[in-house]
UniProtKB/TrEMBL annotation:
The UniProt record lists the keyword Transcription regulation: yes
Domain (3-hydroxyacyl-CoA dehydrogenase C-terminal): residue spans on this chain: 193-287
Gene Ontology process terms (BP): fatty acid metabolic process
InterPro entries xref list: 3-OHacyl-CoA_DH_NAD-bd, 3HC_DH_C, 6-blade_b-propeller_TolB-like, 6-PGluconate_DH-like_C_sf, 6PGD_dom2, LDLR_classB_rpt, NAD(P)-bd_dom_sf, Zn2Cys6_DnaBD
Name assigned to this protein: 3-hydroxyacyl-CoA dehyrogenase
GO molecular-function term, one example from the UniProt record: zinc ion binding
Organism of provenance: Aspergillus niger
Length: 1119
């Protein structure tokens, strides 16, 4: 029988709190603000100081929780346990959730704490029963759980016995907790889940029963929950976030302990979700909610982030300073460690142009000058030192200036902003905020931490965080170009943008809107937040986008998907939607995460990595893929994570490089072509699609499944691109073989009534055509010409059964595609691309397009809502008819040329000119974005899909203007030669009803515009889309300058030739130029010897022939 218990006398005795982390310091502040003395213990001196600072700065706020006017208690910090608990009346442990650590600390407390001292655990995971195995029997009645949530916002505290706790302890603690403003709840019996988690478990259990009985669905349940309780997240969405396998696992414990029925609960959940792989947000199959859409998942970038190496995941403290890591999270949610043994890495960024990541290492001891900067390939290989240890003191956030290949980074204790080249050369100091090695170095208001740059406006921004949670943080701005005659120490262009911030850390800016984003590590409610504010003209207000992180540090923004990725020292990786502000935990463990960057590479040669020439993540696994080249039914791709156990017997095979296995598999599902083609490797956003549509590509993954031809030609693309990159003749041959197999499959498909009407065939032909332009080699040409006749050359019957032409390169594929277009009739996804294709084809052949015929002009196409490109295509398809009509007139001897023919041609030109200008009005000022005559030079490098769509449509418009106005000029001159001047002057260029567009009737002007944009189409974010879209406009520019002296113009030809020569000398243009010249060399010129058509002279001769063909037939010396 227990003797009556006497509560401990408090008086001036302290409450001891073990652990000065986020929650520990809050608990300390709760009691100190209510007048209780508090001893804090933490092995980290910096954590001690931060906790004391927090308590000191927030006493006034917390004092509002308790009743009456009170004097604040003292808060002291200690390193050793004995001094902390000496004379304590209550000890609360808030150390990491590791049961052995808690067992050991309770054993020490039993020995060191006063005999009347109560020992409480803040654990939410472990019953205190499991912590007292080394505690004496006399102390166990004074041990309990005291679980705080997150004061001051969440004031609930759960009290629970260890099985032996004296009942009188709970009224005593309840009174104390109520006195300090908490809301205590007593679990009078030991309970798995305490009180609240059991309530939550019951809610989950009942929700699962509602779903199992078919009463409601997740979306409706969350809807009513959010409405009734005003929560941001409903219970079904929350369970998906936690993971349904975890929900089931937790429920198993309740079932076992309380002997509950599992029929309409966890059994149903496992059968219908868990066992089917539907685990929630972490699963491709989704959970209670459907999985993310294909667009969303395909758009998810790869995340690279840093572990500083100081978290509880590190067991061997003697190894600190060599425990930093670089991790990578792929779009499928898998995390892996790439690089280890780093010395406290902090800032991280990625350069697409060189295909490398760059990061800073702070060094373990801030007092030591041992910081460094390093780089590596994206797969973690080829580590290089950019700046060695000691070249910088404590480097923090780092950002890449892609245009100038520079690195910008902050130096915290060094109080400086640095800049250097990618290789470490030209290392310079841009800003110096204090004198190194003096007392100024200890002034944390001078410490530079985060940085970002605005290349467009020539500015850079940085943060100076101030002491921990001091509300002394500031953000500054200065010019990238140092003011004349000034230095990093005395420069006068520094602006203070924001002051009084809790503790700002990393920065990023959206240059188009001049919106600055930053993380803040400071104290709640304004700290541990994600913030934004305008830094343009006018008054700026700070807006909090997301809150409640755990020591928030790193940030990187995915502008295309409008999502922000964040890391914190608490060991979590987050994603925040910029529009809804919803926050998702992508990864969480016991690490301590700092810097972060993104790479959108999901398959080889995607947009950011074209220039890098590197394979992407996940494609060096031990897979084997082969193609059996017998009959089409036996051909297949195989993925095998181990060794190949069996293959189809007796069949020749193509065995791919190990690194190609993942590539080939991904190619089947959107894969290489999609990622290589579209800007940033992503499907067009809705905004970009309204300008220039690429809708058919949205269905490529689905089309690959039923149509083998499409799979093989995509594989041919992958092989050929890799062969080009590696200069690998074996891969090139395999690409040719895959191409040949695709041709065979196409031949089979075109004889199959069901397959020939499928969209997969049209997609395959389109890729065939792109292959011929970008990948075809001399061997591929031989295979092509030796292949079977495609597109039904030997077919007979109705017109719908007569798509004709043998495969002979680009034009033959185009003919086949056009034949299928015409046979199938109008269809949205294909006709919109067909209009543009037919325009280019018609221009190349100087023949009118079928889509310019009346029956197609009146098709349903005319009545649908169109993108801006669709509207332009309606005009473009009419232009080749002008060329055909001009050639038809020229084909007649001058004496036989009819005045009406010239009149009709010029009248048709003017009609199309009016249509073009009407379309231009619908574009508004958008056409000026990439017009150097309007926006200046150099032009801004495009980054987003909308930019590339606008660049594409601008170049198409200018190309159309070149064709239209050269036709007008030619017709004017040639009509003047064959007709009287009097008649010619009656052509109504300025007649009533015909606006005067004289200023725009200069083909040279439009050609200049194109030449100034070509390099933008080959930038690091463009992908194949940019290169392919620039091909036709550049071809028109080359054609025009070959005969520019023939047309009226306003000077500028010599300068334009210089511009063109410089453009063609660029590395990205060499391959294109070679193909262009090679193509022209293969064009026969009647009446000319091979010698006469060799070299650039021959090229010019052939381009002139394109312009004046019929005239040269009558008079070879005419030009």
């Amino acid at each position: 029988m227990h003797l009556p218990w006497t509560p401990p006398t408090i008086g001036s005795r302290p409450l001891a709190l073990l652990g000065a982390g986020v929650l520990g310091r809050r608990i300390a502040c709760v009691f100190a603000a209510a007048g209780y003395n508090v001893n804090l213990r933490d092995p980290s001196l910096s954590a001690q100081q931060a906790a004391v600072d927090y308590v000191t700065q927030n006493l006034q706020t917390y004092s509002k929780l308790s009743k009456g006017n009170r004097s604040f208690g003292n808060c002291r910090a200690f390193s050793d346990l004995e001094s902390t608990v000496r004379d304590a009346w209550l000890v609360i442990e808030a150390i990491p959730e590791r049961i052995q650590m808690k067992i050991d600390i309770m054993s020490e407390l039993d020995k060191l704490a006063p005999v009347d001292c109560i020992l409480a655990s803040n654990s939410s995971s472990f019953k205190s029963r499991f912590m007292v195995e080394k505690v004496g029997a006399h102390r166990r009645p004074l041990v309990c759980n005291m679980h705080f949530f997150m004061p001051p916002e969440k004031r609930a505290v759960e009290l629970m016995t260890d099985g032996e706790t004296r009942p009188e302890v709970f009224p005593f603690l309840t009174k104390i907790l109520e006195d300090v403003g908490m809301v205590p709840v007593i679990a009078r019996q030991e309970s798995t889940g305490f009180v609240f988690n059991r309530l939550w478990a019951a809610i989950k259990r009942e929700i699962i029963a509602i779903l199992a009985e078919g009463v409601s669905e997740p979306k409706e349940i969350d809807k009513i929950w959010v409405e009734m309780f005003q929560n941001a997240t409903g219970p079904c969405a929350f369970m998906d976030q936690v993971g349904l396998d975890t929900v089931a696992f937790i429920e198993d414990h309740y079932i076992k302990e309380r002997q509950l029925s599992s029929t309409l609960g966890v059994d149903w959940l496992r059968k219908n979700y868990v066992n089917q792989g539907k685990l929630g947000n972490k699963s491709d199959k989704g959970g209670l909610y459907p999985p993310q859409t294909a667009d969303d998942s395909s758009n998810s970038p790869t995340v690279y982030f840093l572990d500083i190496g100081l978290g509880s995941i590190v067991q061997d403290l003697s190894a600190l300073g060599k425990t930093g890591r670089i991790l990578r999270r792929t779009s499928d949610g898998k995390c892996e460690t790439l690089i280890t043994n780093l010395n406290c890495p902090d800032g991280l960024d990625y350069s697409p142009s060189v295909g490398r990541i760059f990061w800073t290492n702070m060094g373990l001891r801030p007092a030591a000058n041992d910081g460094s900067v390093m780089s590596a390939n994206l797969d973690g290989s080829d580590l290089q030192v950019v700046l060695p240890d000691g070249a910088v003191h404590t480097p923090k956030q780092l950002v890449v200036d892609e245009t100038n290949q520079k690195l910008y980074f902050c130096d915290r204790e060094g109080m400086r902003i640095h800049r250097c080249d990618f290789d470490g050369q030209n290392h310079e100091i841009l800003v110096c905020r204090g004198k190194f090695g003096t007392e100024e170095q200890n002034d944390q208001t001078r410490w530079c931490v985060g940085i970002t740059i605005d290349e467009k406006r020539g500015k850079f921004y940085w943060s100076q965080k101030g002491p921990s949670r001091s509300n002394q943080g500031r953000i500054f701005r200065a010019n990238i170009k140092m003011p004349a005659g000034e230095t990093a120490t005395n420069r006068t262009d520094i602006e203070t943008l924001f002051e009084g911030l809790p503790e700002p850390i990393d920065l990023e800016i959206h240059t188009e809107t001049e919106t600055l984003y930053w993380t803040d590590r400071g104290e709640h409610p304004y700290g541990n937040t994600l913030n934004q504010a305008s830094v343009g003209a006018g008054v700026s207000h700070v807006k909090i986008l997301a809150r409640h992180f755990n020591e928030l540090i790193g940030m990187k923004i995915d502008w295309a998907n409008r999502q922000i990725y964040l890391t914190d020292l608490g060991g979590s990786l987050y994603r925040v939607d910029m529009d809804s502000a919803s926050k998702t935990v992508l990864h969480s463990d016991e690490g301590s995460y700092t810097g972060i960057t993104l790479c959108d590479r999901k398959t080889p040669f995607c947009t950011q990595c074209v220039q890098a020439g590197l394979l992407c993540e996940g494609y060096s696994r031990n897979h084997s893929v082969w193609i059996n080249s017998t009959d089409g039914e036996n051909r297949k791709y195989t993925k095998d994570t181990g060794s190949v156990q069996s293959r189809i017997r007796g069949a020749p095979e193509i065995t791919l490089h190990q690194s190609l296995a993942g590539t080939a598999r991904e190619v089947m599902y959107v894969g290489l072509y999609l990622s290589a083609f579209l800007p940033n490797g992503r499907l067009f956003s809705k905004e970009a699609a309204q300008i220039s549509s690429a809708g058919w590509l949205r269905h490529l993954d689905k089309l690959c499944q039923p149509e083998k031809t499409l799979r093989f030609i995509t594989l041919a693309h992958g092989l050929s691109m890799l062969a080009t990159r590696d200069n690998d003749s074996q891969l090139k041959l395999k690409g040719v073989q895959a191409h040949s197999m695709a041709l065979q499959e196409m031949s089979t498909a075109l004889r199959d009534p069901q397959r020939v009407t499928g969209d997969g065939i049209l997609a395959a032909i389109r890729l065939f055509r792109f292959y011929e332009v970008s990948c075809a080699s001399r061997e591929a040409g031989q295979v092509t010409h030796a292949s079977q006749i495609l597109y039904g050359a030997e077919s007979s019957g109705s017109d719908k059964e007569k798509p004709i032409l043998q495969i002979r390169g680009y034009y033959a594929h185009t003919d086949g595609e056009m034949a299928l277009f015409m046979n199938r009739g109008w269809q949205k996804e294909w006709s919109e691309a067909g209009m543009y294709l037919l325009f280019i084809l018609g221009v190349g052949r100087r023949k009118r397009s079928p889509f310019s015929d009346r029956e197609w002009m009146l098709a349903p196409w005319k009545n649908r809502t169109k993108s801006l490109l669709d509207g332009l295509s309606d005009i473009l398809v009419q232009v080749p008819a002008l060329l055909e009509e001009l050639d038809a007139i020229r084909a007649c001897p001058i004496a036989e040329q009819s005045p009406n023919a010239w009149d009709n041609l010029l009248g048709e030109c003017i009609r199309i000119e009016h249509l073009l200008h009407a379309w231009k009005e619908t574009m508004g000022d958008q056409l000026q974005n990439f017009d150097h005559t309007k926006s200046g030079h150099p032009l801004q490098m495009p980054r987003l899909d909308r930019d590339f769509a606008l660049l594409h449509i601008s170049c198409l418009y200018w190309s159309c203007c070149i064709l239209l106005y050269t036709t007008i000029h030619m017709a004017t001159i040639e009509a003047h030669q064959s007709l009287s001047v009097t008649y010619f002057m009656t052509i109504p260029f300025s007649a009533p009803g015909y606006p005067n567009y004289h200023n725009e009737r200069n083909p040279t002007l439009h050609t200049h515009r194109i030449l100034h944009t070509i390099s933008l189409s080959h930038g690091p974010y463009a992908g194949g889309y940019g290169a392919l879209c620039s091909t036709f406009p550049l071809g028109m520019a080359l054609r025009y300058f070959a005969v520019a002296h023939f047309f009226p113009h306003e000077g500028g030809i010599p300068g334009a030739h210089k511009l063109l020569q410089g453009l063609l000398a660029q590395p990205f243009m060499k391959a294109y130029t070679a193909r262009f010249v090679s193509h022209l060399h293969n064009v026969d010129v009647p009446g000319q010897s091979l010698k006469d058509t060799a070299g650039w002279h021959g090229v010019e001769l052939k381009m002139r022939r394109w312009w004046f063909g019929p005239m040269l037939d009558h008079n070879p010396g005419a030009t």
